[in-house]
Structure formats: structure tokens, C-alpha cells
Amino acid sequence: MADVDSDGGGGFLNFADVDASLSLSGSANNEEKMEQKLESLPESLNAAAASSNDEEVSGRQGFPDPPSLNRKISQNNNTMSSLSSADASSSQSTPTALESPSQLQDWMAYHTTKHPPHVNYMGRKMDETYTFKAAQIALSLSKYLGRQFEQEKDAKNSHEDLPSISCEDIVVDNVIVKNVDSGEAVLKSASPSSGTTNHRSGGNIERRQVLAFGMILYELFTQGTPPPRQIQESLKSSGSILSFGTLRISEQSKEEDVDDWNASGGNRRKNKDDDDDNDMKGEADHSAQESFVRKQRRRRCDGKGKEESVSTLLKLAGVPSSICRLISDMLSNRDDADFGGLFQYDKAVSCFAEVIMDLEQMVDQPKGYLHDTMRLSAKPIVQNKLYSRQKELEQGIELARRSAGGYHMEEDREEYVEACAMDASPSVKQEVLVITGLPGEQRDRGGKSSLANELIAQLKSNGWESLHCKFNHVGRRQPLSTIASAFDSLFSSLLSTENTWGSGGSDKLGDMRTNLLKSFDEESFPILFHLMPNLRRVVSNDGNSIDMQQAEYVFDESAMISSKIRLHNLFYELLKAISDAPMLLFLDDLHWADAASLDLITFLIDEMGASIADDPIRGTNVFIIGTVRTNEVDNSSDLSEFLQKIRSCYNITVTDMALQDLSPADVNVMISEALCYSQRLTRSLAGTVHHKTEGNPFFVKEFLNDLTVENLLVYSFSERTWDWDEELIESRTISDGVAEILTRKLLRLTKDELSGLVMLSCFGSEVSLEVLALVRSSLGNLDIMNTLDCVAQARFVERTDEKYRFVHDMILHAAQGAVDENERMIIMKELLQALLPHGYSDDTILFIVVDLISRVGANRVHDSETRLLFAQLNLTAAKKATNTTDFASASTCVKCGISFLSVGHWEDSYRLSLELFSQSALVEWALGNTEQMMSSLEEVFNNANRFEDTLRAARVKLAYLRMTGNCLAEAFGYGFQVLENLGESFPATPENGIIVQEMLGTKQLVTGPLNESKLRNLPEMTDCTKMEAMTFLEEILICSYQSQSLYFPQIACRMVRISVQYGRAKTSCVGLASLALSLVTVFSDFSEGYSIAKTSMNIAGSDKRVLCYILTIMYGMINIWKEPIQAILPQLKDVYNMSLKYGLIDNALASGMLHAYRAFFTGSLLKPFSKEVALFMRNNSERHKRKLMHLSVLPVSNGISFLCGRSGPQIAEEFITEENLAEALQNKESTVCEAMLAIKLMCSFIFKRLDEVKATARQYLELFERQGRASAQFVNIYRLFYGGLLSLQYYRESREQFWLDRAEYAIEKMEVWTAESVWNFENKLFLLQAERHYAFDEFDHAAEKYMLAQESSKKHRFIHEEALACELAAAFHEKTGNVQFVAELIDRAVNCYQTWGAEGKVESLLLSP
Length: 1409
Hints:
mainly alpha, five-stranded parallel β-sheet, three-stranded antiparallel β-sheet, 65 helices
């Protein structure tokens, strides 16, 4: 059994703080005797030393003495003896001041007077200030002496001459304190060794020096009292057998000792004396010998002697226990060259490395390791600190700096901005840190959460805020509640800080309030208020949110997908609004996050990466940390997909930090601090514990606690010692690891405590106090609050102001397995019974209830009424989950609800069955589970009693067919079928004559002042059938636009007519705007279309989905015929951003594509524009997966690269292939196909690659001319403009009538359009006319038109077309002999192309002959 003295730990009661006048039990006579004994303490110490010396020496003869050491000790013996009493010590001359350097004896004399020892009822005690200063000197001197015994490799690499020190040098008289403030000490007689050292001259040398150094420390810490004589005499004979310290050696002969040494294989202690180790042969021999050594050590330590030990003498002198132990162990060495330290005490210190280890702990942590303190607990107390993670912590801080734009403190900002200014393209990334490790490390010293929490603490000290999302694997929560609660908790914290004026909290909250009010409108706040109640308090200052308080969030089921994206955007905008100061988002236990939360987190990370493109210097100011269990990644497909997605996000750097279990050395540090005991002495125990626990931090902690319960690790309050037996600890078998320990620990609880813990586990890892109050009486007479408070004292759970939570997930698992399944089911049913009445009014309680219902299961509930109740509750929860776009949770609730339906449920519970299966179809469609969606749809269609009951399912099916992409024909057929049942029929094939008549009639209904006023004042539509018809008409309208169907104007007219007759519906404005577009594209009635579009926008109201659709039509397709296109581009970009914000992906992609083409053809500066296009394409291809939309913008991207001279397609054919054009036509995307053609024609003409595109121009120009002769769309402008220019070039070369017809048609259309908007079309008309005059050799007219084209292009800010006009004019004048104009025109063209950013064209132009 190893016994160790302890300094105490955990909670401390310092003896020095105890009043010396404290009365003790006993008589006054006893107190007087105690005082007398304390006063005579120095003499008794000397007497004990002398007595001990006589007894020791008398039994140890026959060993030779080292002469040199004997002489040295003799010379100094009188000096040491003179310090043996208090009187002698006080009689010495004490220096009045102490300067550096100073002799150690002077230092001791000075500080003994300045910091004398004091006496209280516990005995004599050294002054703590003196003890600490002495420890500093001891540490400095031990490092000085220990340098000579450093590793040989280090000594060889060092250019420093190490001192050559002999044992004779190591005496008190020879110690010099070089710096009395820092405690730096050396030996004055040590001299350089001329490049040679004696540090490898044998382990006995170092042991003897440690022994001599121990005697110095004895005198230093006793303020001048020399060691007992037998210790001094030990250096006289190398064969003397010492009997001091805590060591007691029973008398035996030298031969017996030699036999013991031979049998045990010599001294096998590691890091003591490598030169004395002997090889052992055979594992069996090794085991037997180790056992023999342990027995010998126990036997020798158990012997009791009459003499006082060194440790006892030191303690009587008031020296702290830790110093007593160290000095005693140092003086337990034996300089025995023959026997290699056979009789060395088990914990004897024989090398300076271990001395330094002890002293460093004392100096670094004096309260725990140096000064005498008393433990208040008999259990190991694991310190609340991070173990062995400094490297990882530094890496995390560096990643945080990068995420915050390269700084995490404000003073670093200016330096970082200057650095970025020198770099045109700073490589800022959004940093995501994923910390992985095995289970059992969370919330422990050295585990995943502990590392993250330490990182958070350091960042918060530098002004960071944090959002902590702790996911739970047990218990279904309110959708997105984990993330929403993190925001809500932050707001609550800031609100509480605001009340503390002067802390800066009010300013921070005020800035946040301002940002929030700028970021959100009156429609957005109610959605966020629903999820984060404290947000209302944040923005409600000074009456700002009176209107918002009255608004309620209403979920739009018809826009379910867009609602999900809108909610994601709201969270992102919220994160941006509160991130003026750096923000840390901590995602704890990501492996238990639900699918909806993972989707939201993916979106946030993706958006943050994209935002860096807009502001690469600032970054996002958000650093994301996630913790994941290594063994859960492969078990969760959602988690694996999530990690894969974020790694592929744009501008995102994911750093994986895999945490390993603690090493033996780390475990030793952990145990040393838990016991407040030197690492030197806990090393063997730590090795055994590490072997048992494999270094798992939580396992180590619980294993130590279990050892104390089993009395295998025992603390003595009276002796302040820990006792343990390594053999018994090693023999313990733990088959199930930490789970087995926790189970045993739980079984020690009382029945009530265990029941309370099991009940708590039914809620998951945590539960609020409000919920517990509702189930207070669920377990009979058990007072659940008091019971859990008792359990909290045992550290199974912890209580905050708001909730109870398990301190570790493994305790949760153990609690769940502590009772059998039947008993657990009984508890859950009782909880259900208590919570059911509250589930109807509280969403939080509702989701707890449905979680308990799902775990009880339908097979355990037999009452029919109860089954229907449980099914209804799950339906309610599914609808609420759908409203927050948590479709995965909604799906789970629906499936659970369906499982409670009886066999004949369609007859017995028709309405409930209809709603459950309709809801199932809806959420499965949102999740992309097509098979499950179709199954639920068939269930509804086959069992519905009437057509009206199928409409909700029909909307799901039509939306699915429309968004699938390749099912537009089927969508048309199904939609028209539903509309016919609703009383709105359409012809099988649209006829032009019928369409024209219907458009003219509808136009008369809505044009004119009276009709416009009538439209503004239409009543609300109340006919439910017509309202359903309008919903389906909108879906078919979108299908018809996508396919360029002739049904488009017909459906638009029908929607307008129904609105005029039955009142205004939500989609009435959509029909009106579509009518305006039809008038423009079919009739080229630009004025009426422009007017009706404005009317539709004015009456659109606040519905953002409707408004975005109308604005896309207006700015992208109608206003370009009336307003300057440069003024429209910013508005079109705003529509794109608004559509993204509200989740209207189709509308966003359409407006984004329209903006890309209009900006490209209008001559937007290519360099900034290329970044916008790249971001749009990334969003489309990676997030929205619209292949055709991506394909349509690809020519713009390639065209930019081509014009800028970057790497990219080098011939016009590579911009778009014939296969791409054919695919677009096959999918009836004729507009997309025409846009691709226009890009190809433009780039081919600008780079004069006419032959490469001639065949394509011949094939497609006539085709689109026939198809769109009556239409007017934006893409027509540039297809006709560049097609006309190419045709005139081809006509000049071939005089082929085909090309002249194409050119004449282009000029004809341009004349019509110029009459509508001189700004947008005049310069193009002039250039086409100039080329036509040139083709017919009308040179004077051509020269005039070239000049007009240049002036008009410059006036109307079409810089690229000004360049083109100059270049074509230069070619014309060169051809006609007017060479005086050519150079000026080429220079002007070059300047314009350079301003545009077309460096590739500039290079081509300058290199041309």
C-alpha cells in the first residue's frame, strides 16, 4: 500500500488563517504545557536529531567513508550546529538590508527576522511568504545543478560550458543568491569545465548530489536549522544504510539485503538510474520479481522505529507537508555503487529532474502544492480546466481571427485593412472548425466541449459574443428550437446587461436594435418573434414595434418551399444584424442535430461564404465551431451529407480537429491536480488509471471517484495522506467501461433519487423547471424538485435558474438503462397523463407530449378514444412543424399519427384521416420523398368522398409536376383537368383568333381611367371555388411561360376576367401583369402594356411573392421598351435580392438571368460584373440545381472571359454547342435558346470570326424570325441587332438575298422600337443603317450614320456599342480611302473597349493589321 502526504485541494482551509487565540477543548493547564513545548521546539529538534543520529550510526558499521566528503562536513559541522537552536540563530548578526548578490545564510537570516514563524493551536508554522521565497531559491538552484545531468544529445548541441560540480561544493556556505528578488541562486565555487562535463559519469553522482542538495533545502526551509547528524554522517560512508524520512528499515544483514537486491533484479525505477537497470528474462520472472519488490517495499515501509523521522522533524519545525515530503524523499537516497540503491525508499528522489518537477508545481501553484491546506472533501476533485489542449486552443484562436476579418481585437483592424489594401485579392475564407472525438469527452477536462468552452471564454474576454446551440438526441423539441433558443438566450443576456449602465451593454444593444430595424420589415418580425420572444423586447424600445406587436405570422402553404428559404434568409439576416462585434456560433453535439437544423446551418454557412465575395476585407465576423462524435458520423446519413455539403461551399474552409484521448502524462497531471499531490508521486497511480481508462477524461474522473467509494483510494484527514494499492486497482475488471461504473454509481442512490433521475431521462438531456412543475405529482408522493436537488449534489445533474440538465450524456444513457423497459413505460405514461392538458395551449409542451407518445408507441395504447386523441395531437404538431418549415419533424409526427389510426379509419375518422394523409403528401413533397408522397396522394384520391376534399392534394401533385422540369406536358394536362372540375375549361389546342379576341376584350375591361379605378377598388373574392381556380390558374400560367405556350395570354385573360367578376384574389395582380406582358410581346402594344403593368404593381399589396413576380415582369420585360435600361438594371437586381430573401427561387433565378443578359448587352463594366455572374452561377448550380438556368447564363460568363482575355473558350463555337441549343428547344425553352444565340452572334461579330458562326446564323435567324415575328422580347433586340450586322457583312461578301432579308427585317423592328424608346434603340438603328448604306455603296449616308451612331452611343452610355461604332467606321473609312479618320477612330475604339474591360478585344484590335 503506497501512502502519500497531501497538501489538500478542492476547497481549502489554510492553517495560517486560523486565529492563534482560538480556544481548544481542555484545561488551561494543557494550553500552558502546549505553549512551553512550542517554545522549546528548536532544542527538541536538535535533541531528536542527536538521538536519532546515535541510534542510526550504531547499527551501521563496515562501510568505507568517502574521505573528501568527510573532511568537508567536518569543516562545516560547527557552523551547522550553531544554528541548531532559536537562541543561537537569533544571536547572529542579522543584516539590516539585503542586496544582490548575497550569501544564502545572509538571505535566511534577513528573511527569518522579516518573516518569522508563528505558533497557533496546531503547532509551529513557517511564514508563507518566507516559504514561497525559499521555494523560488530552491527551484533556481535545482535547475542550476540539474543542467549537468541533461541528456547527452542536448549537452553536445549546446555551446555553453556547463559547470563541473562535485558533492563537496553542494553546501549551504557555497550558495549565492544572485538576485534576491527573483530568487536566482548558484554555487560560488563552481567553475567552467573547459568544454567537458561530468553529467554522464554515473547515476550515483547525481544521487549523491541530490542528497547533498536535500541537506541545503533542510536548512533553508527550517530557517537555518541543520539536518540531523545521521544525515550528515551518511556522506561519510558510501555503504551506510540510512533510516530516516518516512522510511523504516528493519535490521537485517548485508547479505540478506544483497539477496533481496539480486532476487528483485536491482532497482527498476524508471528515470532514476538507467545505468543500474538489469535485463529481465521471461515475463513470468519479471512478474514474480516485481511482486517481490512490492512486498519488500511494503515490508520496509511498515516497520516502526523509535527514532524521529526527517519528515516528523520538519513538520515539527512548521515546514509545509509538501516540502517535508520532498526533502525527506531526497534524503532517502543512498550512494551505493555496489548495490545500485537496493535499499532506496520507494519514493526516494535520486535525480534533479524530479526535484525540479516538484518545486515548479509548488512555485506555480503555491496554494495547492506548497502551503499547508486542509481538504474539505475525501474525494478527488478534478479541476475545472483544460488538459493537454494548448496547441488546439491556439489553432482555434487563429481560425477565429481569420473569420473576424483577420482580427479579434479592435486595435488589429487598421493593420489588417492596410495589409489587404496591398493585396488586390485577399484570400479571406469563412472558417468552420469541426472538433471530433470519441464519446465520453464532452463536458470534461480535455474533451470536445471543454475545448470549445475554453475557446469561447478566451474570445469573449476580447469582446466576442457567442451563440450556443446544444443539440439533444433524446426528446423531440419544437422545430428549430435549439438554434432559435440560442439567439433568444443571447437577447436575454443583452437585455439584462442593458440594465447595468456603464458596462457598455446598453450601447451594444442600441446598435443591435438599429441594425435589426434596418434589416427587417413588419412582415418579417412576427416570424422571428414566434421563435424568439426576447427579440420583441429588443426591438420594442421607444415604441418602435407597436404595429409589429399586433401582427401575427400566417404560414402560406401554397408557397411552402419558398417559406423555408425565406425563414433561412431571416436567420441569416438576423445573424448579420447582430454581428457587428465578432460572433461565435457553437454547435454542440452536431451528430444529434435534426434535419431541419442541419439544413439551416448549411444555408447559413453557404451564405456567409458567398458574402465574402462582396466584402473580402471585413469577412463575416462569425466563427463557427461544431463538435461531433467520431463514431456517429457513419451512423447518420444526415450528418455525413451535412459535412460533405459545407466542405463544398464557396469560400468556406473546414478545419477538422480530431481530439485523441489523454496521454499517460496528461492523466498524471489530471490526477495530480485532483489530489493536490506531486506529479512525481502520482505517476505510478496515473499509469494504472490510464491503462484502465485509456485516457478518456470522463472515464478517468469517474474511475477515481469509484476508487474512493470502493476504499481503494483513501484520504486521511488527520494525516493528510492518500493511500492506494496499485495491485488491487490493477486487478479490478471493468468489462463495460465507464457505463459499468456509472451504473454502479446509480444503484447506490435511494429509490426516490433513482426514480427522479429516470423520470428526468425521459425528457432528454435537459428539462425546464416549468415542465417539471407540471409533473410534480406524477410519481406519487415524490417531491421531484427536492429529489433532483439531492441528485445534483452527487453531480449527476446540475441545476440552473431555468432547468435541470445531466452533467454528461453518459449519465443520461446510464439512467435510461437503470430500470427495465416496462417500468420506464409506466413512468412515461404518467408523464403523458400530467402533460396532456397543457399540450393544447403551449407548443413546447405539445412537442414533448408527441415525443412521449411516439416512444410509448401505438402497440401499447388500446383505448380507441386515446388513440384518436394521440393521432390528433400528432397532426397538430405536424402542422406547427410545417409552419416553421421543419418538414422532417412534420413527417415524423404525421407517420406517428397515422400509426394510431384504426383499421377502418376512413369510415370511422374520415376528416382526421383526410388531413393526416394530405399533410403527409405535402411534407413528403417538400422533403423530396416522391414515393411516399405519391402513396399518400393515392390514399387521398382513392378514399375522398368528394372532389373538393382532393384539392389540397391536387395542388401538391401539380406543383410537383411543374417543378420536376420534364413533366410540363403532364402538368398542363392535369392542371386543365382540375380546372375543368372547377368550372374553368380551355380548348385542347389554343387558336390564334380566339386568343386575339379574348385579349382585345380583356384589354377593354382594364384600360381607361374608370376601369383602372375599378380595379383598385375591387372587393375581396369570397367564392371558394373561384379562389381555388385562381390558385390552379397561377400554376398553369407559370408552366405556360416556361414553355412559351400560347396558353399564356389566354390564362392571363381568364384570371383578369374572374377577378373583375368575382372580386380580387391574392393572385389577381399576377394575371393583370401577365396580361400586360402579353400585350407587349404579342401585339407590341408597349404603351398599354406599360400602363397595365404599373396598375398591377400599385394594387399588388404587401404579398412579396406576388410583388416579386410583377416586378420581374415590369423591369425585366416591359419597362425596357420605355425607360433607359441603365436605370432599370439596379431595380432588377433589387428584385433578384428580394426574391432570394423571400425564398422565391424560380423568380430569383428568372430575375437574375434577366439582369445578367441585360447588364451584359448594355455594356456594364466587365470586371465587377463578372463577380456578380460568378456568384449567381454558383448559387444556381450548387444550391438550386436548375441546370437549364445555369446553362443559359454560362454563355454570359464565357463571353466575359473571352472579352477580358482570360482563359476560356477561344472560338465562338465553344460558347454554346449545338447540343445545348437543341436541348433548350426540346424542353420548349425557346427564350433561353435565343439568348444563347444572341451571345454567340455578339462575340463572333466583335472578334470578327464571321466564318465560324455563319452556319449557325443561317439556321437559327430565320427560325426565330418565323416563330417570333409578332413578339417583342428583350433578347429579340440583340439577336436582331447582331444578326442584322452579321447579315449585312455576309451580304456585302456574297450579295445573297437571304442575308439582305434578315438585315431588312432587323432594321424594320429597330425602327419600331426606337419610336418607343430613343434612349435604348437609336444608336443601334443608326449603326444598322450605316452598315446598310455601306453595303449599297451609299458612302455619304453611311459616313453620316456612323457619326450619329457614335454620338448616340456616347450620349446614351452604351460604351461598348460606341467602341463598335468607331471600329466599324474606321473599317469603312479605310475601305473608302478616308485614311485620315482611321487612326483617331481606332484610338477611340481602343479607349472605349478598355473602359468596358474588354482587354482581349483590345489586344486583338492592336495586333490586327
